[in-house]
Amino acid sequence: MPWCMDRIREDKVARDPEREFSRQTKMQALARQDFLCASCASLILPFAGKGLVSVAWGESAHAHHRRPMKPPFHGGANVENCVILCDSCHINAHEGGRYRTGTAWGRIADFPYFRGTRGGWKE
After folding, report:
1. φ, ψ for residue 62 (rounded to 5)?
2. Rounded distance, CA 48 to CA 73, Å?
3. If DSSP states are collapsed to H, E and C, what string results for the chain?
4. Which of 37, 55, 94, 107 has its CA 20 to 30 A from that of 2?
């Protein structure tokens, strides 16, 4: 096994259900966004057995915590902290993939389609 696989497995942390978004929360966030990626507005639809998929790019879509769960941000697993992003925008939101060490958190203004096509946002 390549050395990098050992490192990935060592670093992997079990997901805590209290910190993860429920399916209902993800669907509420997606509906709020008019089924659009909150960043690039690509159409995102739920597919049975595949989860959320960006129709335009053929890639998966992800629920993203606007405010990270770790201190000092203490974001929650609620719908106001949830934005649905296509895979490309999700990587970008994590500073190029720095999922564990990134320090940025997103304001609603950072996601132009947070409220779908209705425009406007409130922090």
Report:
1. -135, 150
2. 33
3. CCHHHHHHHHHCCCCCCCCCCCHHHHHHHHHHCCCECCCCCCEEEEECCCEEEECCCCEEEEEEECCCCCCCCCCCCCHHHEEEEEHHHHHHHCCCCCCCCCCCCCCHHHCCCCCHHHCCCCC
4. 94
Q: Judge residue 98's burial from the number of C-beta atoms within 10 Å of its C-beta, 0-12 exposed, 13-18 middle, 19 or more buried.
A: exposed
- Model pTM score: 0.71
